[in-house]
């Protein structure tokens, strides 16, 4: 996925930045956390995506644009050394033959000298370096700064980042050339069309144009909501936007005035709160970290580590008039700002807005942003209550704008769910997301057929996810150090493999994504190989089969090929080996062309050691471990696990094949799973 995105981006924009290079896994305490990690875990779990994504820029770099691909080193330390100055990561860049520029993030706790002499070309300091401090630098450091400056400034002029005329972009505070500004918006919309994921569809999408559509949201998506209504109306809809504003600063403070702790001894406060009336409420706990709320003895909001700013955490609930809740709050540093807010006025306003609407789309967002981790996967501001009330009143669908997974207690009562990503984490994001509404309107209306698939698992509940309060092993660095050498953080327990092994309930598995045509992918019954195998690659023929109605315009089908490596390799039980995209229908005006590949032909899927092998520290490359590999065509990860467990049932025999490494030109690809 990263490789395809880089390949598309780098042909349209001047620079592509891959970040954050290292073992970057959290936001709280991100600047100081020390990640103790083995070479195998680092390469197999954390650096592999960068090595793959880099391949997307190979053609551009070979043509002389080697500085157009940048790598941003991460916060935190690798085995006691700051990531941007880590010899381990510098060696990894050399192993990957990376020739682009390396830049730091903001204030990575390393001096100018160590950064530039470690090969960083562009730094982002918290404050400017004084001239006297600059003069005191060694000759070696000054030369490194000079060399880096020449490279960076040369690229800025070459790519028209320095331009006498252009378009002022208030989101980034810079003037861009007109072509760069327009290209950036066009590319962003194209990515949105490909990346958005249709999660549920009870026949509501594509959305009909009869009647009226109410877009209902809260303050974070103000610009986006209004822009989407405009984009939909241009397509022939009657859409209006209503932005609700819950009183985030006007809630009840049940603990009264509390004072900060000293960072060493926790302070505590207890109180009994009585609901004044029946209805929906939400807790808001704004904190800089290390604070915990218990409700009737149950841990409800837990924030470990340090956020870089006061970050609001929300949990909504319903209470009956006179109901008592025992609240206990503890904190280690700055006193949290804790309030309880009634949703009554917000929901009354929403109900009034819904009266004249034929249908409702609730545009919901999370509050994930840089510098702080979410304490829960629940939607903020009482969105869950709003969606429940809307679904009980009008036919309702949900458009999600989130930074990652969220829980959906209302999933059974809504008609459809789209995940559009791009959570509005800060004040400038809303205006940026608003620029994507042409693509979003195309997806809602069916002008564009959704083809996106989830790159992450959506769990049923926070408690049965890595974010759960009782799953602290998944949230590293609480004490500013994390051991990534042992499970679950060591590799075998990461991602969809852990959900499977722990039997945690999953709402939407990794790789899930709906579309409008009926799709399927199988291996041919003979001649599965499409090219001679090598020690580092295996080519398999895949038969995509698609049934489309006449209303579907352009359509590309996605085939996911999963790999089950031998247990002796020390790898996870299942990996995503590769993804193929096959253009099945091309629409030009009134002319429609269907591809025979999606009717009776086949396409090639190449699985490489870079994608599915393991790091060999002696050869300094990824390689397939000796043993039998199963290759599985599946709709998503859960489907792949089912096929692997029961390869002889139903249509499974045509969806799984196996071969034994070391691979070579004489390797046979055989139907079915690896022998037990």
TrEMBL record:
<protein>
    <submittedName>
        <fullName>Unannotated protein</fullName>
    </submittedName>
</protein>
<dbReference type="GO" id="GO:0005975">
    <property type="term" value="P:carbohydrate metabolic process"/>
</dbReference>
<dbReference type="Pfam" id="PF01915">
    <property type="entry name" value="Glyco_hydro_3_C"/>
</dbReference>
<dbReference type="InterPro" id="IPR036881">
    <property type="entry name" value="Glyco_hydro_3_C_sf"/>
</dbReference>
<dbReference type="InterPro" id="IPR036962">
    <property type="entry name" value="Glyco_hydro_3_N_sf"/>
</dbReference>
<dbReference type="InterPro" id="IPR002772">
    <property type="entry name" value="Glyco_hydro_3_C"/>
</dbReference>
<feature type="domain" description="Glycoside hydrolase family 3 C-terminal">
    <location>
        <begin position="197"/>
        <end position="516"/>
    </location>
</feature>
<dbReference type="GO" id="GO:0004553">
    <property type="term" value="F:hydrolase activity, hydrolyzing O-glycosyl compounds"/>
</dbReference>
<comment type="similarity">
    <text>Belongs to the glycosyl hydrolase 3 family.</text>
</comment>
<keyword id="KW-0378">Hydrolase</keyword>
<dbReference type="InterPro" id="IPR017853">
    <property type="entry name" value="GH"/>
</dbReference>
<dbReference type="InterPro" id="IPR050288">
    <property type="entry name" value="Cellulose_deg_GH3"/>
</dbReference>
């Amino acid at each position: 996925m990263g490789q395809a995105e880089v390949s598309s981006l780098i042909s349209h924009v001047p620079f592509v930045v891959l970040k954050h290079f290292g073992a970057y896994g959290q936001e709280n305490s991100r600047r100081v956390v020390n990640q103790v990690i083995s070479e195998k875990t680092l390469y197999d779990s954390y650096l592999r995506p960068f090595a793959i994504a880099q391949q997307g820029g190979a053609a551009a770099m070979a043509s002389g644009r080697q500085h157009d691909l940048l790598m941003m080193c991460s916060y935190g330390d690798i085995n006691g050394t700051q990531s941007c100055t880590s010899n381990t990561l510098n060696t990894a860049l050399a192993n990957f033959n990376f020739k682009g520029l390396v830049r730091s993030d903001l204030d990575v706790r390393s001096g100018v000298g160590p950064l530039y002499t470690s090969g960083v070309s562009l730094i982002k300091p918290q404050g400017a370096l004084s001239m006297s401090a600059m003069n005191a630098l060694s000759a070696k450091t000054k030369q490194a700064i000079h060399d880096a400056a020449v490279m960076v400034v040369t690229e800025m002029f070459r790519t028209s980042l320095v331009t006498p005329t252009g378009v002022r972009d208030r989101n980034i505070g810079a003037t861009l050339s007109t072509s760069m500004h327009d290209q950036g918006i066009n590319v962003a919309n194209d990515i949105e069309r490909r990346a958005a994921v249709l999660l549920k569809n009870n026949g509501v999408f594509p959305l009909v144009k009869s009647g009226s559509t109410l877009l209902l949201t809260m303050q974070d998506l103000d610009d986006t909501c209004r822009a989407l209504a405009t984009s939909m109306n241009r397509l022939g809809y009657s859409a209006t936007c209503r932005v609700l504003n819950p009183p985030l600063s006007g809630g009840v403070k049940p603990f009264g005035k509390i004072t900060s702790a000293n960072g060493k001894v926790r302070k505590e406060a207890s109180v009994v709160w009585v609901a004044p009336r029946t209805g929906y409420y939400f807790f808001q706990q704004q904190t800089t970290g290390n604070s915990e709320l218990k409700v009737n003895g149950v841990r409800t909001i837990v924030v470990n580590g340090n956020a870089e700013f006061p970050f609001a955490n929300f949990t909504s609930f319903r209470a009956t008039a006179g109901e008592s809740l025992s609240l206990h709050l503890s904190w280690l540093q700055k006193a949290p700002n804790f309030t309880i807010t009634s949703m009554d006025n917000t929901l009354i306003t929403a109900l009034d807005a819904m009266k004249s609407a034929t249908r409702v789309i609730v545009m919901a967002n999370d509050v994930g942003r840089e510098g702080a981790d979410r304490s829960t996967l629940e939607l903020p501001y009482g969105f869950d209550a709003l969606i429940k009330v809307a679904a009980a009143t009008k036919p309702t669908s949900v458009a999600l704008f989130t930074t990652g997974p969220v829980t959906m207690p209302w999933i059974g009562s809504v008609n459809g769910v789209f995940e559009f990503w791009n959570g509005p984490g800060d004040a400038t994001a809303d205006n940026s997301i608003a620029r994507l509404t042409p693509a979003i309107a195309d997806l809602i209306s069916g002008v564009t057929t959704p083809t996106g698939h989830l790159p992450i698992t959506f769990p049923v509940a926070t408690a049965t996810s890595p974010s759960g309060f009782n799953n602290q092993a998944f949230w590293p660095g609480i004490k500013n150090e994390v051991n990534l050498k042992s499970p679950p953080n060591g590799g075998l327990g990461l991602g969809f493999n852990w959900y499977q092994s722990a039997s945690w309930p999953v709402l939407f598995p990794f790789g899930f994504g709906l579309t409008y045509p009926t799709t399927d992918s199988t291996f041919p019954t003979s001649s599965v190989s499409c090219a001679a195998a090598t020690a580092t690659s295996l080519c398999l023929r895949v038969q995509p089969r698609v049934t489309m109605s006449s209303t579907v315009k352009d359509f590309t089908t996605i085939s996911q090929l999963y790999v089950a490596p031998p247990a002796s390799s020390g790898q996870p039980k299942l990996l995503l080996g590769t993804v193929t995209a096959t253009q099945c229908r091309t629409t030009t005006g009134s002319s429609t062309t269907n591809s025979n590949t999606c009717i009776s032909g086949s396409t090639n899927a190449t699985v490489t050691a870079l994608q599915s092998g393991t790091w060999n520290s002696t050869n300094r490359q990824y390689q397939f471990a000796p043993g039998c590999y199963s290759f599985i065509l599946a709709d998503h990860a859960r489907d792949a696990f089912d096929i692997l467990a029961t390869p002889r049932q139903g249509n499974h025999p045509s969806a799984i094949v196996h071969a034994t490494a070391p691979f070579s030109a004489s390797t046979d690809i055989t139907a079915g799973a690896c022998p037990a």
